[in-house]
Amino acid sequence: MSKNREIGDIFDSIADMLDLREDNPFRIRAYRNAARNIRELSEDIEKLAERNELTKIPGIGNDLAEKINEFITTGKINHYDELKKKVPEGLVELLAIQGLGPKTLAKLNKEIGVKNLDDLERALEGKEILTLRGMGQKKIEDIKRGIELLKQSGERMPLGIALPLAEEIIFEISKIPGTEGTVAAGSLRRMKETVGDIDILTMAKNGERVIKAFTKLSLVKEVLAAGDTKGSVILKNGMQVDLRVVEPGSYGAALQYFTGSKAHNIKLRTIALEKGLKINEYGVFRGTENIAGETEEEIYQTLELPWIPPEIREDKGEIEAASDGKLPNLIELRDIRGDLQMHSKWSDGKATIEEMALRARELGYEYIAMTDHSPSSRIAKGLSVERLYEKKKEVEAVNKKLKGIKTLMGAEVDIKGDGSLDYPDTVLKHLDIVLVAVHSGFKMDRESMTKRIVKALQNPYVHALVHPTGRLIGEREAYEVDMDEVIKTAKVLGKALEVNSYYLRLDLNDINVRKAIQMGVKIVISTDAHLPDQLGMMRLGVATARRGWAEKKDVINTMDLKGLTKWLNSVRDK
Ligand code: DGT
Ligand code: CA
Ligand code: CA
Ligand code: ZN
Description:
Elements: H1 2-20, H2 25-39, H3 45-50, H4 62-74, H5 78-86, H6 89-94, H7 102-112, H8 117-125, H9 137-153, E1 157-158, H10 159-174, E2 180-185, H11 186-189, E3 194-195, E4 198-203, H12 207-215, E5 220-226, E6 230-235, E7 240-246, H13 251-259, H14 262-274, E8 278-280, E9 283-286, E10 289-292, H15 296-302, H16 318-323, E11 338-339, H17 353-362, E12 367-373, H18 385-401, E13 406-414, H19 425-428, E14 433-437, H20 446-458, E15 464-465, H21 483-493, E16 496-500, H22 510-518, E17 523-526, H23 538-547, H24 561-573
Parallel strand pairs: 4-7, 11-12, 12-13, 13-14, 14-15, 15-16, 16-17
Antiparallel strand pairs: 1-3, 2-4, 5-6, 6-7, 8-9, 9-10
């Protein structure tokens, strides 16, 4: 459904450019809404267009439907091309800077001629910028920090965007005649939270023909290289894809080599040398004799190692563990028995409790927890105590109606500035599961933030701290907090820490997961889904937990309902 994504992206860029031109806010919002709704469609937009049903999409009127049809029939949108001529390209890119909104940017452009990042950085160092209304030293510092963050995230793409894209490309490549065993390699296969580029490997006899077909895929914008074993392209969304075509005899060697990480491979090469072997992307060699290459297993075997899961190939002790027979038995997606954080229409979710429960049942889950927001999260339509009890009745009704899936009544409760919670204990004790989170006041100093979170965990009714560091990949840094202290507190009190699977969160990250489980703290992997489709993000959370060496026993939502209920009760009995 790449057209859905393409059109969504174009509508977003149109909104960006209109924003910079200080156009009508309603129009801008209309484009953004439309973009989101198109991306969230569960059907191909071309099919809807064929049936003349575009205006059935929420937020799409005749005007936008016409633009969608224009794109489907001609491959472009005139309005978009016209706008692009009027707004400097460098300026649009600056919108990605956190702390710099379209209004300020428009002013910077109009009044001091900022057209790109260079201009902006120069302006931030000068005096003239201080003459702009609303621009003080604090604002300047905020923008500088935003630039820093953007540069750090660079061109890296969140795993949650790259993964479905890679799957689509892999599907397309496997349709090219003569290809076999097409798979992802590189950081994508290692499920790193962001990827620099997508690496794909396939087997084929006629490499040149495969590469040629690859460069002609409809997602491709630009061809960087096209030989007979390697092709590189830039996709329409700016992402680079490298395809390598190998022979069956060296498939395993190439897969191992191109999966990396570089650090892991370097260590393997050293071990090979000690054994008098040479290892490269074609195989393992003793002198000129090729002794392995077809499968990854045999590559590792020649080095007297068991196969190592890609997610932990980072040279962080996995090779030593493998050699000692102490590799972790990593958790798998199929171990997950339920999802313990999600939202319904009661707060800011887009589906009913029943719709969420039904999808969870389809996924084979045994239970879910409905954890809508608490009153302080006003934008997220947090529930008053009164509404919370009304919702509890609906949960009970759904449980009566649906067999085979149990819905636990829960809440995601705001941790207030002083560490107290957004519902009183008299209310919390009536909930099956209580999650706590920081949703405001991110800019506290480290000591106060640590105290705030520790105090929240000390509440006897609390089960888990969710999205524990508050970071949003490429958008917002983690707040200042002493995670070691938080982990220690969780350990002492027997509380769980979440790995939030939402693709921009993945919070705890791999490093903190590893710290937590080393301390013996339990993890809960949940999606924070606001629609049924988002329940599918569980695989990103599981991957993050795997990167942190988590095993099934470390994760509470691998227990069956009985085990989980026992655990939930035991937390409160402590
Ligand atoms: P990325 O794309 O920045 O997210 O990270 P990777 O790990 O996918 O890196 P990439 O795309 O540059 O290369 C893919 C893999 O190829 C990498 O993980 C290991 C292997 N590789 C690349 N360059 C070297 C190298 O100089 N030495 C070794 N041993 N392996 C390399
Ligand atoms: Ca890569
Ligand atoms: Ca690459
Ligand atoms: Zn939330």
